[in-house]
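Protein in question filed below.

…
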Amino acid sequence: MSVMDLRALEIFQTVVTEGSVSKAAVKLNRVQSNISTRIKQLETQVGKQLFYRQNRKLTLTADGELLLSYADRLIDLSLEAKDALGENSPKGVFRIGAMESTAAARLPEILALYTTSYPDVEIELQTGTAGALMQRLSKGEIEVAFIAEPVVGQNIQTQPVFEENLVLIAPASYPKITGFDALDGKTLIAFEQGCAYRSYLEGWLKDANVAPGNVLSVSSYLAIFACVAAGTGFAVVPQTILNMINSTAEFQKIPLADDFAKIRTMLAHGAGYSSAKLNSFKKFLPKLPST
């Protein structure tokens, strides 16, 4: 198979995005016949049918879906290369992934300063668990991710940027907690599986010889605080998030100690990835020791 023409892949991507050849022609300022010819040439080159064609409606085949995933990555890599080699001010879309706690407590001020300094950059911020963010990073759906350590993945480069103090919160209705054994049998409230903080918490429970009863999985810190305030169970949260809540609810708050007292948030991206957007963004991030 001959080397694919990047322009042909861009045309293919546009047809998919716009939903039809006619709309893609308008978007690309080309005649429809030219778009149709380039798509047919691409199908001939790969030896696969890329679209089902019915009543002027185009639907991707399974092979078309596969090629689109590669086309998206190749086009993104091309843009990254131009960005990294260019001398102009950074511009374009910068896709950032972050855990909810980082997005809420750490990034707002940084993003405000960055976008003010580089108005030609459009930030797309996505939140999710560490596991979900690593999947998006590996697929090229985001360019960088803020993930709690340890970061597990191949060909990933990291640097520590934030350090979080972890605090146990328990309902005020619980007897005063003087030892963690008082949590035996109590309900643990935590994010769903895939959350780095949950894995860290499970390690702490094992180390502290705490055997919780039920585990209630939730999807937001608001839900965690509401459940703890209602007396449902206990949780562990970053102090930065605890500082943000504007609530009259009373919690018992106990900082964790020893090896589990702190957890670092890492900036992760593909090994060797560089761009003007990333390099300029790093200037706004704190620099923590690597060890």
